[in-house]
Each structure stands twice: as structure tokens, then as C-alpha cells.
Design a protein that fits this description.
The complex is a heterotrimer of chains A (247), B (767) and C (344).
Chain A (H helix, E strand, L loop, with lengths): L6 E4 L3 H8 L4 E4 L5 H6 L7 E4 L9 E4 L2 E5 L4 H5 L10 H7 L4 H4 L4 H7 L5 H9 L2 E6 L2 E6 L4 E3 L2 E2 L6 E8 L8 E5 L9 E6 L2 E5 L6 E2 L12 H20 L1
Parallel strand pairs in A: 1-3, 2-3
Antiparallel strand pairs in A: 4-5, 5-10, 6-7, 6-10, 8-9, 11-12, 12-13, 13-14
Chain B lengths: L14 H5 L15 E7 L5 E7 L8 E2 L10 E2 L11 E2 L6 E2 L5 E7 L2 H10 L1 E6 L23 E7 L10 E9 L11 E7 L4 E6 L4 H12 L6 E4 L15 H13 L4 E4 L2 H7 L6 E9 L5 E11 L12 H9 L8 E9 L13 H20 L3 H8 L8 E2 L5 E2 L4 H11 L5 H10 L3 E13 L3 H4 L11 E7 L5 E5 L8 H13 L6 E4 L17 H28 L5 E3 L2 E4 L2 E4 H10 L6 H4 L4 E6 L7 E13 L6 E11 L6 H21 L30 E5 L21 H13 L8 E2 L3 H8 L1
Parallel strand pairs in B: 1-14, 10-31, 12-13, 16-17, 22-23, 29-30
Antiparallel strand pairs in B: 1-7, 2-6, 2-8, 3-7, 4-5, 9-17, 10-15, 11-12, 11-14, 15-16, 18-19, 20-28, 21-22, 21-27, 24-25, 25-26, 28-29
Helix pairs in contact in B: 6-7, 7-8, 7-17, 12-13, 13-14, 16-17
Chain C lengths: L1 E5 L2 E5 L7 H9 L17 E4 L2 E4 L12 E3 L8 H12 L9 H15 L4 H7 L11 H12 L33 E8 L3 H8 L2 H7 L3 E7 L2 E10 L2 E13 L3 E10 L2 E14 L2 E13 L9 H22 L22
Parallel strand pairs in C: 1-5
Antiparallel strand pairs in C: 1-2, 3-4, 3-5, 6-12, 7-8, 8-9, 9-10, 10-11, 11-12
Helix pairs in contact in C: 2-3, 2-5, 3-5, 6-8, 7-8
The chains are: A alpha+beta (247), B alpha+beta (767), C alpha+beta (344).
Chain lengths: 247, 767, 344
């Protein structure tokens, strides 16, 4: 299938992009690796695609005293390859390498993935575990949203209509920090059936039908999960913890 | 054996163009002013069409059945008693009976615009309850108005086995999922009316151009001479392209009407997945009766096959279930046998034979049940099978359903597989793994594959096409090159190489001087096409026979030119003692200087067309033993294949490299059947997977580095001793893999019965 | 009109914004070596190099590639690594029908150049995004390994740490969820008195006001007419249709059907209110069917999350309404959408 007809509008300035996104039927485009398949199926039918990739600053990765400010249009492959500063003792690069396929990672962006907010995706869970902060811009200026309050429901984020995710601020893990990551899926690149993240003092379950869940113990898994899914989530978290503790 | 002839592992002649992106597939073909076609397809599984409203302003670009004047529906009946006929309309007429059934055809300048228009078509369908489960809906309500129920055909091998008193009776109910064949290239058609030739010129991604031509001519009411079908490079078939398409008929009609403007339709992946999950859905209720030593005393089975909504041309809807009855006893010595089968019509895509056809399901049912027998008898699965396989001394062996196993040493194949994976040492390894909390299992499957069977096997089915002799035409060109024309179609099997090797074997010119021409009804002899593991045996035999006759003629000319009585054909030349004349010189003289030859020799054309049949047309029987070591992750339900080994006997291999490729590719598809591939439907008949994210194909990470060991027992009935093995690889994996899974979890008292053995099913079995 | 460099040649293409790069290359440039296998980003047949990096040409609109350098399989004719790979592919019988081959070559070349000498397991991981239906991958993996073996080991080929396969933890028993297809049950506690909740639930207009995405345009007796807008991330569908309304003792049901383009939906919501210590308990059974493209995805796991989200919002709106407050701003979610979107 081919997409419906739409206009393509590459953004040059933030003000211009925000104005363009205010038009009816306008949708932001980043790497397009989630959006284009749904458009090719005509499930998504934008009037205008506002390409935010060219916006100034979205391709910047700045190390700060407290961590890393990662522009939203940084690709998964750039994180995988260590083209951005490492403030997480290799955790982000490890996660990036497990996302979809290399050809997709070359185009797909961290910001696009976060805004898409598929519960099965890696970044929403990892950013919540890292206690990162989203920097978003709207007509009223910039605001900051904690990653742990980002995903409201599957495919729904705290981003308001017309806002653009500019960057994500990732706190630095102490040097030598140990971490573990477990993703349960049947094939490389396939949707995760469950995700487990273990960082120092943090356990998190993702891909659990809704927002990722910080856990004190496995008993904290959301009660609504069916037995199999609950088991897979518990396995993912247990394995992530074991990987962290064995590191 | 010459270096490039039969049996040589020469590299493929066709690789060069593919590796440089210069293959030419149907989607690559374009004509000036060509229009693109999209189809509006049924969104519901079953319903009565109340109205189709063409969008205003686009009436001339939208076509429905009502427009297709003079077109006949597609009919693929069988003359078997009780078979129920169904008409498949190129565009839906009155009712729709599956999601994805074409309802309207739209043409526009681009595909995107055609899809825009298709979206605007008004569709009023009164939905009816859908038949989605072959067991629950066998009795009805019928999906065809004049049928009493949904039984397409019921067959019965009626041996009353009630007198068999067996100490061991193991009964299992097993299910295999509906699959989509998923060649990487979908279907596609480019067609135009050629006014100069007064001919419809259709390029189609097809496995059987001649059959398509005949069927299309019938549906369109054209003489066959007015239809030419060309299959360019075809991006995989596997049975998916062995059919006359509704789209071909509808587009053929429109192209004829347009009188010159070319049309192109390329099936997209969503169309393919949502409309064409068309194979492999079986249900078995099987009981194996055995004595204490594990010797089979009888097999009793009731099998259902989901035939889908219509009978697809040319293979009728009953073919697969009826085949179940004839092949269920597998490679074994089975004294008593009873089998009932039902072909059941449902509101799903019409069934087509997918690589392995019924054998994959049958092998799964029998082999997993035999493992359960072995567990009950307390003997190893290998030993149980060795006690039931016919030995080499019994060959040719006629089994209980009158299959004639032509040659081979079936027990030896299994022994070699068992030795190669150290089956004897496995219980100790398994125990050690269990002590570490790991579940590993070893599984086997043994089967034989009837291939290249012909007239005597098929005529009883009374289907639209009964395969007969396969013909080849060989032409010695004036420059000493050879053109070989075959009616079969190459879509990955390496025939441009293997058939050239056959010609080289007889005529000696180097492979690069031999050109295989295929896939065009105007250029090749009539043929039922490529299916049923028949091309190496049938087309290979035909090329061999035709080349042998050509060789005689060349020899005669050589003898005349050398003025010798005793001549020899060697190294591309005719020799008489020290004197010789190259074949190329003979070709030149025949075509360009005939005055050097006597008149009777001038009329012996160096262009020979000859048909070939095997010595007996009951088929070659390749056979194989598959051995798998699998690990089951009890926490996630995931299965890892730690080792996969195949012992294969395909008779004399025309090219071992190509034969390996067939076995490996088939096995990868079998792994998909075993573990990954499934088209789920909801109770309303909606297919629930329309992308490769929902319908999982095995990737490089899921298919292990499969090992192959060859045995080469020549077939006594084929031209070079070769056997058909094109489907073999796809038959064994589900059985062998599930046997390995069950071996891993049997000590827990658990078994998997349905495939694919997904994590969900394994966790459910372990829960 | 866009300008880009294709296989070293500057090309000007007049192509609509909706044309993806694969179609632009094939139809606009006549470079048919780039094959289209799914247009869903999964099969990898259309993989080309964009500014030297492999990319799916089906997931990139031609306009996004303006100003960029694109290399297709045809552009690798004289590339030394590609030439070595071609020879190795042929030797190892790494292709049959040839359809996946161009994308496979582009990926293989990237593996060799980016990772250098690399082991089989890593090659298989890297090939996950290129499907082949013919070969079983063995020849492909061996061919790449052979070419890679002649190159230096590069840091990027470092092995990846894996989570250990520890056994499943023992969990407290949870009642199994009902797994009937197209049917979900849900309970929502309401922090308002039973009768106050019933006052709203017995009135379709007030139900609609509380239900995110619903709008009631007509209500005459048992007949309802309205629209339901469902959004799921970027996917949005607006179903317009009719329905019937039935009411009982603290219980009711709405059954309706509607369509949005090629998608049609029919659904029923049955609910009943039961007393609870602090208010009331709303018991909902949602059953539905959906036809058309929206139906044809299988990610059922998402569904419960969606229904829970929808029911939760409905309950909160109902509580507000019972207290005389306005419903919260619409946050539309719709359980009827058998949700699926690519998750990257």
C-alpha cells in the first residue's frame, strides 16, 4: 500500500515547526521508522509531515556536569556506536544495539521512539529507569517532564498537542555502575514481550501493556497482567537483576 | 562424470545478474503509458453484496463483476465421487466468502492514486456468520448456497481394524496452523493487448505459465493462441504461484478491452498476508496401535483439512486432504490402516499446496505420535523407527496404500543421523543438563517424499490438469551453442545451471555455451510447470532425452563428414581415429553449408523436441532423517535449536550445491512451520496478522547452521537416477522439533500438540 | 522537485511527497535492483545506502533524501568489498530466487566494513533485518564470514553481554484472565454513591459525555446515533454509526456499529453497578468485532492496557459528573482498535 497524499515540510526553525504543527492534520516526523510503516498502511493519514530532524540542536549530544543532554534526533545507531558521550557505563549503547535492525537504527531516533511511546519499545523503559528528563517545547516555551511521568498509556505521552520533544537529559551513572538489561522476544528485532531493567538501586519492568513500572519487588508488577505476561515480566526483571549483580 | 556434467558442484550460471541487481522481476517491467491497478478487497469474511457504488467522476476507472462481460468464473473441480464444486469469480459476484476477496478493480496513473479511488468506492455488504473452524463448521451453516454442509470431499480408507488387539494404543489430537507461504516477491501481473500479434501478452510471477495460459483463455473466452504468458525472474514460489489468479483474469479482460494500454498490479505484503494465508491447516485425531516391542500393528486416523472458500485452479480443494489418506503411513511397514478425511470449506483463502503439501502435516502427526508410542513402550524413538522401516532388501517396497518406494536404505539414513548426533550418549547429556536446571531434548523424524509422479497417480483425481510427459526442446545454433527450451519455470531452483549440466553431460559444450530458456509460453514446450518436486526428474529427463537424440544426429553428420563408420562423441567433437570434427563445425555446416550433406541428412533438424516420462510414473521417493537437539526455556517458553542435522537421499544429485540449497531452504521453512508461522483469525474470520511483525518468518538468528549428510541411492525409474527433493526439507522439521521439545519436557508429564510451538503454547503446556 | 545524488549521478526528481525512496529509485530512476518486499520495514529487500549507511528505502520518503547521496545495488558494481561478497555468495550458494539479494548485499557489505572479522553469531544477529525465504541463511552467513575473515577485527564487533537465563521466579498465583477473543471484562471502583453513578449511567447522553472520544448526535428511545473517535498514537479513526440502548436494574448495554473508511466496527458494552464499601463498583464487559485494516494486527497484549485506560478515564469523568464537575479534557483511547504499531 502507498500512503495518502500529504505535504512534506522540513522544519528550519523551532518557531516555524511549532506553527506548522498547529495546522490541522500536521504530524511531526523524526526518523520515521515507526511512522512510515503505519503511513504505508494508511492507518496514519497526515495532511502534513513536519520533519523536525533538521531543527537546530536536535542532533546535539552535550555532556553536562550532571549527565548528558541528548538531542531528540540522535539515532539509535549513533548511541550504539558510541558517537555520543557515554554517561551510563555502556548501558545505552547496549540497549541501542538491540533495537530493531541496523538499517532501522541508522534512521530511527531516540526522540521519535520516546514520542511514539510503544510500551514494547526500549527507550521509554530505559529513560524511566534512568530517571531522565524530557525537554519539550511548545507555543508557550520550554518545559521539563520527568521520564517516569512520560508514558501515560500505550502510545500516549505527556506531550501536549503541538509540542515537540527537543532533548532528553540523562543523569550520569556513577563510574563503575553495574546494570542489567533483559528483553524477552522471539526474534532479534521483534517486539519485546517483556523488558527488565536493573540499575543501581532501580528495578523496572517494561512492555507490560502500559507504562513501565518501577518495582520494589516482583510483587509490585501491575495486577492486571495475565498469568503468562506476568511471568515473562518477572523473568525479564529477574534476569536483568542477575545480569547487573553478576557484572 | 565430466567436470560440468551431472553431479558436478558447479556454481550457478544465474547468480551474476541477481548479485548485481540486474534480475528482472514482474515489478521491474514497465511500458509507456502503463496504468497501475489496485483491488478493492472484501473487509469481511462472509457476506452478501448489496451494492457497490463507483465514486463519481471515476466510473471509467473502476470495474466490478458486472462489467466483466463474457468472462467465466474460475472452476477447479475434481471428478472424485462426492466432490462439491464451487465457482471462484475474478471479482466477487453476489457474495464474498473470504477477507481479501477482490471486489473491484481500479486503474489509475499511479498505485497510490488507484488506492485513493478504491477507498472511495461505496460498499454495502450484509454480513453473514463466518465459518472459521473446520471442526466446528464442518456441518454448516454452509458457505455455498446450494451445499448441504461445508464438506468439499469426504474420503475413507475403510479397513475395519476393530479386530486388531494391540497392547499399546496411543491416540493424539493434533493441530497445525494456517500459514502464508511468503515468497519474498509477492504475486504480480503486467499485461497488455498486442494488436499486431492479436495476443494478450501477460507477464506474471508464475510457476506454471502454460497452465495459466490455458485457464486464462478459458475464462476470457479467447483461443489459446491469443494468450501469451511470460514469467520473468520469479522471486520465490513454493506453491504460492502455482495458480490461475483472479487478478490475472480481471486484468486480462481489461487489457483486452483497452487494446494496447499496459496494466500493472503488484501484490503488496498487506494484501498477501491478509488475503492469502492459504495453506497447511490440518487437524488430526490419530491412533497408533503397536505391540510391546513397538512394532506398528495399525494406524487409525480421522483428519480434517481447512480447504478455504473456493477450489483454486488447477489444484482442486480436495487435493490435500485426499493426499493425507494416501501418505499417512509414511515410510513405514504398516499392516493395517484406516483413515477418514474431510476437506472442509471455510471463509478463508482457498487452500493451495505449499512446499511439502500434505506431507508436512502428516509427518508431524505420525512422527510425534510414534514418539509417544516409544515412550509408552519404553524404547528409544530411534529403535522404534528402525523396527518399522522397510529395509533395503525390501526395495522396491509397495506400502499399504500402494505407494512404490523405488529405492534406498531407509534404516541406514536414520542410523547415520542417530550416530552423527550421538543419540546413544544423549540421555546422559540430558540428565546432566536437567541437573543444571536446563531442559534439552533430542527429536527425530523420518519420512519419504514422492516426487515427479505423473499420469497414473493423478488421473484418478479428475482435476483440471493431469501431468503427462514433460517436453524439452534443444537447438544447436549455427555457432555451435545450444539453446534448451523447457516448459517448467525456474524460480530459485538453479535450473538454468542444472539443466545445462544435463545438456553438457550429453553434448559436451561448455556451460557458458548452453542457454536455458524458460518461463514463456511462446518460446517453450507445453508443460504443467514447476511443482511437486518434479523439475529435476521430469525436465532433467526431457533435456537428457532430447540431447541424446540430437547427439545421434550430430554423430551421423560427423560420421559422414569424416567418412568413417565408427565415430565417437567426445569433448565437444566427433572423433574417428585421429581425425575429428568439432560439434561447432557440424552446426555451421548443417545450418550454413548444407550442400556438404546428403539431402536426407539436411532434413534431420538439429532442433529436437522430445517428451519424457520416467520408467514408471509412480514417482521417485527421496527420503530423509532429521535430527534436532533443542533446548526449552521453561521460564519464557522459548525454544533454541542447538543442532540440526539432515541425512538426505535424493538419488543422484544433478548438482550437490543446488540440492543442498533446496534442502536447507526447505528446512528453514519447516522451522517456521514448527515454531513461528501462524495466521490467527478471529471468530468473524478476520485474519489478525497483516505485517511481517505479526506474521513471523524465521531469520538468520532462528535458523541454525544445518548440517547435511548425503546418501545417493539412484532411482531405478529416472533418467540419471535422480529423485525429486525440492520439498523434502520442509517436511521433517515440525515433527523433529516438536519431538525434541517433547523429549525435553516428557519427564514432567507434558507434551506439545499444536504447532507452531510458540512460547505461549509451551508455557501453557508447562503450566 | 528534489535533487539527490544516486550512484554518483545528480538526479532531479519530480515526485509527490508520498513517494517513498524505493519507488522513486525504481520508477523515477529506473533502478529496479532495489526490491520491495513488505513496505513495512521488516524484510530488508529494499535496503540501500543513504550517505553511506544502510537504510530502508521503503521507510524514507524521497523528499527526506533531498540533498543526500544514495547508493543502490547497481552502484556497487565496482566496489571491491561487494565484488568479494558476490564471489563468496556464489561459492556458498547464498542466493536462490535473488529477490532478497540486493538488500542482503548492502547489509553484508556494511557488516564487513563496520565490524571487520566477525563471528558467525554476530553475523546472524546483524542479518536479523534481512529476510530470505529460499536459502536457510547458511550460505549467506558463511559467505559473509569468509569475506570478513580477511579483514581486521574492529572494536564494534565486541560481543554483547547477555542477561543470564535464570529460572522463572515463583509468583503469587493470579486468577487467569478471561481469554475469549474480542471480549474483555473490566472492573472500576467509583468513589461516588451507587445511585449517583446510576443517575449518569442510565442516561446515554451523560454516558457519552463521560466517554472519551464519544459524541451522541441523536437519542430517541432505544436508538442512538453518534460518532466515536479513536486515537492510538498517530493512528486515528472516526467511526460514525448507529446503536441501540437497553437499560435494566442498575445495568445497561449499548450495542452499536459504525464505519471509518475501510474499517467497520461493531461493539457492545454491558455494564452493571454493584454496591461497594466506599461507593460503587462498575463492572464492564466489552465485546467487539472489527473489520478492515485496523483489525488485521495481532498485538492483543496491548488491548487490556487500552481498555483499562479508557475505563479508568470514564470512571474518573463519571465521578466528576456525579459531583457536578465538567469532564476532564478528552484523552482519546479506544479499545476497539486492535492496537498495533511498530515499536522502535
Amino acid at each position: 500500500m502507498k500512503p495518502v497524499a500529504f505535504d512534506y515540510a522540513p522544519a528550519e526553525t523551532l518557531a516555524g515547526a511549532l506553527a506548522a504543527l498547529a495546522a490541522p492534520g500536521a504530524k511531526p516526523l523524526s526518523g520515521g521508522q515507526s511512522l512510515a510503516p503505519t503511513m504505508n498502511l494508511r492507518l496514519v493519514r497526515p495532511a502534513t509531515l513536519v520533519d523536525v530532524k533538521p531543527l537546530p540542536g536536535l542532533r546535539d549530544a552535550l555532556e553536562t556536569p550532571t549527565g548528558l543532554r541528548l538531542g531528540a534526533a540522535i539515532t539509535h545507531a549513533e548511541i550504539e556506536d558510541g558517537a555520543v558521550p557515554d554517561v551510563t557505563c555502556g548501558f545505552l549503547a547496549h540497549v541501542a544495539r538491540g533495537i530493531a535492525y541496523r538499517a532501522v537504527r541508522n534512521r530511527g531516533t531516540i526522540g521519535g521512539s520516546l514520542c511514539h511511546a510503544d510500551p514494547a519499545a526500549d527507550w521509554p523503559s530505559c529513560m524511566a529507569a534512568l530517571n531522565a528528563t524530557m525537554i519539550v517545547a511548545g507555543q508557550g516555551g520550554e518545559r521539563r517532564i520527568p521520564a517516569r511521568e512520560w508514558m501515560r498509556a500505550p502510545f500516549v505521552t505527556a506531550l501536549a498537542a503541538g509540542e515537540i520533544l527537543l532533548a532528553v537529559e540523562i543523569p550520569r551513572l556513577p563510574p563503575g555502575s553495574r546494570w542489567g538489561y533483559a528483553k524477552i522476544n522471539r526474534k532479534v528485532g521483534e517486539f519485546a514481550k517483556a523488558l527488565g531493567v536493573a540499575l543501581p538501586g532501580v528495578l523496572l519492568a517494561g512492555a507490560i501493556e502500559g507504562p513501565p513500572a518501577l518495582l520494589g519487588s516482583l510483587d509490585d508488577l501491575p495486577p492486571g497482567l495475565d498469568a503468562q505476561h506476568r511471568q515473562l515480566a518477572a523473568v525479564a526483571v529477574t534476569r536483568a537483576a542477575a545480569m547487573r549483580d553478576a557484572a | 562424470m565430466s567436470r560440468q556434467g551431472v553431479g558436478a558442484p558447479v556454481l550457478r550460471k544465474e547468480d551474476g545478474r541477481f548479485l548485481r541487481g540486474r534480475g528482472r522481476y514482474v515489478g521491474d517491467i514497465a511500458f509507456p503509458g502503463m496504468r497501475e491497478v489496485a483491488f478493492l478487497r472484501s473487509p469481511v469474511a462472509h457476506g452478501i453484496i448489496r451494492a457497490i457504488t463507483k465514486p463519481q467522476g471515476y466510473e471509467a476507472q473502476v470495474f466490478t463483476w458486472a462489467d466483466l462481460e463474457g468472462v467465466q468464473p474460475i472452476r477447479a473441480p475434481s471428478s472424485l465421487p462426492g466432490f462439491r464444486k464451487s465457482d471462484q469469480y475474478p471479482l466477487a459476484h453476489g457474495r464474498v466468502r473470504q477477507v481479501g476477496e477482490p471486489i473491484a478493480m481500479v486503474m489509475a496513473a499511479t498505485r497510490a492514486e488507484a488506492e485513493d479511488i478504491a477507498e472511495m468506492i461505496g460498499l454495502d455488504i450484509e454480513e453473514l456468520p463466518a465459518a472459521t473452524d473446520m471442526l466446528a463448521h464442518r456441518a454448516g451453516p454452509p458457505i455455498h448456497e446450494n451445499w448441504p454442509d461445508n464438506v468439499v470431499l469426504h474420503t475413507l480408507v475403510d479397513d475395519d481394524i476393530s479386530d486388531v488387539a494391540a497392547p499399546i494404543v496411543v491416540r493424539r489430537q493434533l493441530r497445525t496452523a494456517r500459514q502464508h507461504m511468503a515468497p519474498m516477491e509477492g504475486r504480480g501481473v503486467v499485461v497488455r493487448w498486442d494488436e499486431r500479434m492479436e495476443q494478450l501478452e501477460m507477464h506474471s510471477s508464475s510457476q506454471m505459465v502454460h497452465v495459466t495460459k490455458t485457464g486464462l483463455a478459458e475464462c476470457l473466452g479467447l483461443p489459446e493462441a491469443a494468450v501469451r504468458i511470460i514469467a520473468p525472474d520469479v522471486g520465490g514460489g513454493f506453491g504460492y504461484k502455482g495458480i490461475l489468479l483472479q487478478e490475472e483474469v480481471a486484468m486480462g479482460w481489461l487489457a483486452r478491452r483497452l487494446g494496447g494500454t499496459a496494466l500493472r498490479w503488484i501484490e503488496d505484503r498487506r494484501e498477501a498476508l491478509s488475503a492469502q494465508a492459504n495453506c497447511r491447516e490440518h487437524h488430526y485425531d490419530i491412533a497408533v496401535h503397536a505391540d510391546h516391542d513397538g512394532r506398528i500393528l495399525a494406524i487409525d486416523c480421522e483428519a480434517h483439512v481447512d480447504s478455504g472458500a473456493y477450489s483454486a485452479y488447477p489444484f482442486s480443494a480436495c487435493l490435500e486432504a485426499a493426499q493425507v489418506a494416501s501418505i499417512l503411513p509414511g515410510p513405514y511397514v504398516v499392516p493395517r490402516y484406516r483413515c477418514r478425511t474431510w476437506s472442509v470449506a471455510t471463509n478463508k483463502a482457498p487452500i493451495l499446496p505449499y512446499r511439502g503439501v500434505a506431507r508436512t502435516g502428516v509427518c508431524y502427526a505420525l512422527e510425534t505420535t510414534l514418539d509417544a508410542v516409544a515412550r509408552q513402550a519404553g524404547i528409544s524413538p530411534v529403535e522404534l523407527r528402525l523396527r518399522n522401516l522397510p529395509g533395503p532388501e525390501a526395495m522396491p517396497y509397495i506400502n499399504i496404500t500402494n505407494k512404490i518406494f523405488d529405492s534406498g536404505d531407509y534404516p541406514e539414513a536414520l542410523r547415520r543421523a542417530a550416530d552423527a548426533v550421538d543419540a546413544a550418549g544423549f540421555p546422559a547429556r540430558q540428565a546432566a543438563a536437567r541437573a543444571e536446571g536446563r531442559l534439552i531434548g533430542l527429536g527425530f523424524a523420518v519420512f519419504c517424499e514422492q516426487g515427479a509422479h505423473g499420469t497414473s497417480v493423478y488421473h484418478g483425481w479428475g482435476i483440471p490438469f493431469v501431468p503427462g510427459a514433460e517436453a524439452a526442446q534443444v537447438r544447436l545454433t549455427p555457432d555451435g551453442g545450444l539453446e534448451v527450451r523447457v516448459g517448467v519455470q525456474n524460480h530459485g531452483q538453479g535450473m538454468e545451471t542444472t539443466l545445462a549440466q544435463v545438456a553438457h553431460e550429453l553434448l559436451g559444450m561448455p556451460l557458458d555455451r548452453i542457454r536455458i530458456i524458460h518461463g514463456d509460453t511462446a518460446l517453450t514446450p507445453y508443460s504443467t510447470g514447476t511443482w511437486g518436486s518434479r523439475s529435476a526428474v521430469m525436465a532433467g529427463g526431457a533435456v537428457g532425452d532430447a540431447c541424446a537424440l540430437l547427439r545421434e544426429r550430430v554423430l551421423a553428420i560427423g560420421a559422414h563428414l569424416l567418412q568413417a563408420e565408427h565415430v565417437e562423441y567426445r569433448d565437444g567433437a566427433i572423433h574417428a581415429g585421429a581425425a575429428s570434427v568439432p560439434v561447432a563445425e557440424i552446426a555451421r555446416i548443417f545450418h550454413r553449408a548444407p550442400q556438404q550433406l546428403p539431402p536426407e541428412m539436411q532434413t534431420q533438424s538439429l532442433e529436437v523436441t522430445l517428451g519424457h516420462k520416467t520408467v514408471r510414473d509412480t514417482g521417485t521417493f527421496s527420503y530423509a532423517a532429521h535430527a534436532v537437539e533443542a533446548e526449552v526455556d521453561a521460564a519464557t517458553g522459548q525454544v533454541k535449536l542447538r543442532r540440526y542435522l539432515i541425512v538426505e537421499d535424493g538419488g543422484v544429485l544433478l548438482n550437490p550445491l543446488v540440492a543442498d540449497g533446496q534442502v536447507l531452504g526447505g528446512a528453514a521453512q519447516g522451522i517456521g512451520t514448527a515454531l513461528y508461522e501462524e495466521m490467527p483469525f478471529d471468530t468473524a474470520g478476520q485474519p489478525l496478522a497483516s505485517t511481517f511483525v505479526d506474521y513471523l518468518l524465521p531469520g538468520a538468528g532462528e535458523v541454525p547452521d544445518i548440517e547435511i549428510l548425503h546418501m545417493e541411492t539412484p532411482s531405478p525409474i529416472s533418467r540419471f537416477g535422480q529423485k525429486g527433493i525440492g520439498e523434502s526439507g520442509a517436511i521433517g522439521p515440525p515433527a523433529a522439533i516438536v519431538n525434541a521439545i517433547n523429549d525435553a519436557i516428557a519427564h514432567l508429564g507434558r507434551e506439545v500438540t499444536d504447532i507452531p510451538a510458540t512460547p505461549e503454547r509451551i508455557l501453557a503446556a508447562l503450566a | 522537485m528534489i535533487t539527490l545524488t544516486v550512484n554518483g549521478e545528480a538526479r532531479r526528481l519530480d515526485t509527490p511527497a508520498r513517494t517513498h525512496l524505493a519507488d522513486a529509485l525504481r520508477d523515477g530512476c529506473g533502478l529496479t535492483g532495489t526490491h520491495i518486499g513488505c513496505e513495512q520495514g521488516v524484510c530488508g529487500a529494499c535496503t540501500v545506502l543513504v550517505d553511506g549507511k544502510p537504510a530502508r528505502s521503503c521507510l524514507l520518503y524521497a523528499h527526506e533524501a533531498a540533498g543526500k547521496t544514495v547508493t543502490t545495488i547497481e552502484g556497487l558494481d565496482d566496489d571491491a568489498v561487494a565484488e568479494a561478497l558476490r564471489a563468496a555468495f556464489s561459492r556458498h550458494h547464498a542466493l536462490q530466487c535473488g529477490y532478497c539479494t540486493p538488500g542482503m548485499m548492502v547489509t553484508a557489505r556494511d557488516i564487513v566494513l563496520r565490524l571487520g572479522a566477525v563471528d558467525e553469531e554476530r553475523i546472524r544477529e546483524e542479518l536479523a533485518g534481512n529476510l530470505c525465504r529460499c536459502t536457510g541463511y547458511r550460505g549467506i552467513v558463511r559467505a559473509i564470514a569468509e569475506v570478513a575473515a580477511n579483514r581486521p577485527v574492529l572494536p564494534a564487533a565486541a560481543p554483547r553481554r547477555e542477561a543470564p537465563a535464570v529460572a522463572a521466579p515463583v509468583l503469587a498465583t493470579v486468577a487467569p484472565a478471561v481469554e475469549l477473543p474480542n471480549r474483555i471484562e473490566h472492573q472500576e471502583a467509583l468513589a461516588v454513591p451507587l445511585e449517583a453513578a446510576w443517575a449518569i449511567l442510565s442516561d446515554p447522553a451523560r454516558i457519552a459525555a463521560c466517554l472519551p472520544g464519544a459524541a451522541l448526535t441523536r437519542h430517541e428511545g432505544a436508538v442512538l446515533e453518534g460518532t466515536f473517535t479513536a486515537s492510538l498514537g498517530p493512528i486515528s479513526a472516526s467511526f460514525a454509526g448507529v446503536g441501540e440502548w437497553a437499560v435494566g436494574d442498575h445495568a445497561g448495554s449499548v450495542r452499536g456499529r459504525g464505519r471509518d473508511g475501510a474499517n467497520a466496527a461493531e461493539g457492545q458494552v454491558e455494564f452493571h453497578l454493584t454496591p461497594a464499601p466506599e461507593g460503587a463498583l462498575l463492572n464492564v464487559v466489552l465485546s467487539w468485532r472489527l473489520t478492515g485494516p485496523l483489525a488485521q494486527f495481532s498485538r492483543p497484549a496491548l488491548l487490556r492496557g487500552l481498555v483499562a485506560g479508557l475505563a479508568g478515564q470514564f470512571a474518573r469523568n463519571l465521578e466528576r459528573a456525579a459531583r457536578g464537575e465538567a469532564p476532564a479534557k478528552r484523552l482519546s483511547l479506544w479499545a476497539l482498535i486492535r492496537a498495533w504499531i511498530f515499536g522502535r
